[in-house]
Amino acid sequence: MSCGNADPFLTKNPERNCLTMRVLVTGAAGFLGSHLTDRLLGEGHTVLGVDNLSTGDLSNIAHLKSESRFVFEQRDICQPFDPGPVDAVYNMASPASPPEYLRLAIETLRVGSVGTENALEIAQKYNAAFLHASTSECYGDPLEHPQTESYWGNVNPVGPRSVYDEAKRYAEALTMAYHRSRGVNTHLVRIFNTYGPRLHPSDGRVISNFMMQALRDEPLTVYGDGQQTRSFCYVADLIEGILRLSRSGEHLPVNIGNPVEFTILECAEAVLEVTGAKSELRFEPLPQDDPTRRRPDISKAKAILDWEPKIDLREGLRLSLDFFKSKV
Ligand code: UDP
User: What angle do CA 246, 252, 256 make, to 5 degrees?
Assistant: First the structure.
């Protein structure tokens, strides 16, 4: 695996052999948490995965049933817990799709605040590296385009989406406070729209909706006029960026996402092309505070992590096709 003397996990815990690093992943049964768990196990680490299964799904980790280096515990991180010594904590737990965090409004605020504080306490107690999964939603409906990490955002603090946006912004403030006041080795990744296998087929996000609708020969539901933009990152690219960041000396937020920007109509076109479907488009109302555009400036990730995405949208959709077909 890729650890050496420069690895902050190893230098933080010199008594532990990095080959037997023990890692806590919160939200391990979720889309990103389960892919991250796979990568960590693939590198030879031991992973304790926790998830309260509010939006996570055991089917995402079913293939790890007989993996001796993986332990799963169903628990809510809003209740304090002690996982024993760990070398790294990846805080991935949170509802993440708009319909789910609107349904779980209070829970989303709690996991970003109380849950994240509990995870930070664990990192502090065991001198572990800590990475928090933050989001491009910190930029709200951005007035600066593309978004650099130094942009403070344009967020409605009381709109329906605020339960997610403000939870994530609070979690960033909390994480920086644990770094500055308590010396915890923290990292903040601002994740832009990500897709791939295990993106929940019914969680209401655009790629999962379009893929499932196309495969069922149903109309694709385009919200608004479809001219709003997003920049879609394939999950394997995103996980690579997260791992590099968690092993870097960077404590301020870093954007990880694919900077190639698509309108939602272009996204629909790509889905129709990859699936071969002939579905029509059905226009529906735009949800409140739906950002009109979003595109990461990834100069910082390129410079400090030597990272950039490698998989374009059509290739990523092709790589996701079997998964969505299996869910039809
Ligand atoms: N969207 C859409 N049709 C759908 C689902 C989403 O047109 O069936 C739009 C949504 O309004 C937004 C974009 O696609 O402008 C991305 O939405 P998603 O929920 O995937 O993520 P967001 O970036 O809003 O968190």
Answer: 60
* DSSP H or E run through 284: strand 281-284
d(C-alpha 117, C-alpha 105), whole Å:
18
The answer to whether the predicted template modeling score (pTM) of the entire model surpasses 0.85 is yes
> Annotated catalytic, 164?
yes
Q: How far is CA 133 from CA 87, 191, 241, 242, 323, in A?
A: 17, 7, 12, 9, 24
Which residue ranges form the domains of the chain, and what is each CATH number? 11-197+233-259+295-310 (3.40.50.720)
Q: Which residues contact 126 (CB under 8 A, 6 or more apart)?
A: 85, 86, 87
Convert the pLDDT of each residue in 27-74 to its tens digit. Answer: 999 999 999 999 999 999 999 999 999 999 999 999 999 999 999 999
Among 191, 220, 230, 313, which is best to mutate for testing ligand 1, by the most ligand atoms less than 8 A from CB? 230
CA of 116 to the centre of ligand 1 (A): 26
Compute φ and ψ for 55, nearest 5 degrees.
-130, -15
